[in-house]
Amino acid sequence: MKNTFRQYYIVTLLLLTFPFFGTLTAQNTSANTSNTIEKKIDSILSLLTLEEKVAMCHAQSKFSTKGVERLGIPELWMSDGPHGVRAEISWDSWDYAGWTNDSITAFPALTCLAASFNPDLSAKFGKSIGEEALYREKDVLLGPGVNIYRTPLNGRNFEYLGEDPFLASKMVVPYIKGVQKNNVAACVKHFALNNQEHWRSTINVEASDRALHEIYLPAFKAAVQDAGVWAVMGAYNKFRGQYTTHHELLTKTILKGDWAYDGVVISDWSSTHDTMEAALNGLDLEMGTGTDGLGTTTANHYDYYYLASPFLKALKNGDINASVVDDKVKRILRLMLRTTLKSNRGFGNINTKAHHNVARRVAQEGIVLLKNENNFFPIEDKEGLTIAVIGENATRSMTAGGGSSELKPQFEISPLEGMKQRYKNAKIIHAMGYHTGPSVYDNIIPSTLNQDSLRLQAIETAKKADIVLYVGGLNKSHLQDCEGDDRQSYELPYNQEAFISELKAVNPNLGMLLVTGNAVATPWLPKVDGLIQTWYLGSMAGHAIADVVSGDVNPSGKLPFSFAKKLEDNGAHFYGESSYPGDGTDQHYKEDILVGYRWFDTKKITPRYAFGYGLSYTNFSLSDITTRSNKLKRDGSITVSCKVTNNGSIDGAEVVQVYVGKKKSKVKRALKELKGFNKVHVTSGASKTVSIDIPVSTLAFYNEDTSDWEIEKGDYIIYVGNASNNISKQIKISVK
Ligand code: GLC
After folding, report:
1. Catalytic residue among 268, 547, 569, 601, which?
2. Does 60 sit in the ligand 1 pocket, CB within 6 Å?
3. CA distances (Å), 11 to each of 22, 331, 335, 480, 489, in order?
4. Same domain for 382 and 330
């Protein structure tokens, strides 16, 4: 229905307002096209009344904003989320609308995408999810999220791209381009410094300019300047005392000023708090405000939005200049002309084999093999072999729950289902071991359920098996990997440590799949021979897991964040409560630029597993590591070349990582920082040489005195390896 009206609107609109439209020729260059768009915008703007302009700047329902019906300007429709298109939500409440045609493909969580270290896969991911958003007639997809992984307790880390700003930047750009190829806007979020869920809507973050520019902004800057993202979502928290959604430094000076962003700033849902700030600091579209203060909706409450009647009143009495609302409306019209008003927009597609294959590929390449003693993995599909797949996470849905990124997939293959379908000769048996309650909001094991019988039954099952595969980890319940709050401990919940010991006691042949979007404490590690980090993988989870467990696929994922041995080893937890979670009002990022492996390397703390680490079923060696020149000009680039040899009998892929550090510097520096990587597939016995270019400009640090980037002259060290803690060679270079 909407499509027909949409075509009608477009015809009416274009005929009505662009008499010269017919003269446009097919030879439009992109410059002309953007000129044309700008001319269209100006023409439409001149036709709008002030009331119509203001109405376009705020919600009319939970996930849509008003158009201008008399001119044929359509509504704008948005939907979560980063891993798939969320089920339809009701007009004016958070309830699902109960549609029967909104099941979709659930793609892996973005932490898994980051772990693939494969930008080409990210492009495929973005294109596929964009096609599904277009089919579901959404103009804005509310994702991807790129907030940096600062603490392993953050409930939403599973939605983001890890602890390193360079990796996050390189992985987010192809995703956004892929989405927007479908004439659907991506909406990079949450801008900025939303690195925890605890007290998210009130906490005031204090962080240095260097931490801001070198750690927390780069992925957003790449989204704007390299991917040309069409929408940015503000965040809930404050920064230096002001709400980030309408922040003079962040949204006005940096985003729309320095970065010359031409898209729309959308608030998070009820992250808007002030009319003048929203008007003057760059908020364009206010969504989800709970105007009665209780967060719930009352009759015609959309008129009370900060950018509704109070905004109109301020414009009418001259407190706010008309140019302010015009700028917002021009950005919104630009967004519309790139999406819902784009001619030949296409219709997208949904739940296709192609999308399922992309979901499976991302999962296969993101899964990380962390430990593999006694060749526990891969497990052969052998006649007479009995494999016990144990744990609630072997069957529990991981697309339900987790908050706004939750999905209603057309199907979700569980780890157990995937193992059963793959293993035709071996016998697969199963026991839950524990049950955490049907609701996604149960965080403790309810005593009502007879837990003991579940546990004992699992022990018996383990006794009967040749091999035990325990599927443990976290889930999408409240206070776990879930929006709205953080985990309250670093340990695995539900007494899993004791349970793992009990399984080991009755069957020494024990391996484990860790289903999480975060690092966890691993005191149980000695008990398991094999350990695989399997993330939240969406619709094709069980197939991708069985692909790797069976050896059909050789794992090639690398950790996008460090696994600390204990919580206080993390920089965010080293300085106590004032640094995490804060005192309820303020929070100080005292580790400053030393986030993640930057902290572990510089403070010489050994993590359980390091950033960039991941094993393979084969083994690779890096050799012939050279840089083309060792004396570099500032506008030059370092070209690192490295030969990768697959010494094993199985084809596989390795990720060559290039870090750069500066021992002598006039400012504090991390020991080394990721500045390049290249994932290369090498068949068994073969070698391939990769070359990685690192522009000298990326070595710059942010000088807080000059408030600008600066490249320091002198010597740097180039570290080349296949993990941040496994460097094959160091090369000294100097910048003149
Ligand atoms: C939520 C999330 C945001 C989401 C929005 C709409 O609170 O913070 O990521 O897109 O509201 O559901």
Report:
1. 268
2. no
3. 12, 21, 18, 50, 58
4. no
How many whole angstroms from 404 Cα to the centroid of ligand 1?
A: 6
* DSSP state, residue 717: E
268 is catalytic: yes
Which stretches of 46-198 are DSSP H helices? 50-55, 110-115, 119-135, 165-180
More confident call, 291 vs 402: 402
For residue 389, the one-letter residue type is V
Q: Are residues 296 and 373 in the same domain?
A: no
pLDDT at 197: 98
In 696-725, DSSP assigns E strands to 701-703, 708-710, 714-723
Asked whether 404 lines ligand 1 (CB < 6 A), one says: yes
Q: Which residue stretches of 348-414 are H helix? A: 353-366
Phi-psi region of 370 (alpha: psi -120 to 50; beta: other; left: phi over 0): alpha
Structural domain including 333 reads: 6-338
Whether the per-residue pLDDT at 270 is higher than 90: the answer is yes
Mutate which of 140, 269, 482 for ligand 1? The one with the most ligand atoms within 8 Å of its CB, which is 269
Task: Check whether 1 has a pLDDT greater than 50.
Answer: no
82 vs 14, more confident: 82
Per the model's pLDDT, the better-predicted residue between 24 and 660 turns out to be 660
Q: Which of 561, 576, 594 is the last residue of a domain?
A: 561
Per-residue pLDDT at 124: 98
314 and 376 fall within a common domain? no
What's the structural domain count of the chain?
Answer: 3
92 or 326, greater pLDDT:
326
Strand order in the sheet with 620-627: 620-627, 637-646, 687-695
**Protein residue with least CA distance to atom 8, ligand 1:** 268
Q: Are residues 288 and 426 in the same domain?
A: no
**Interval between CA 95 and ligand 1 midpoint (Å):** 14
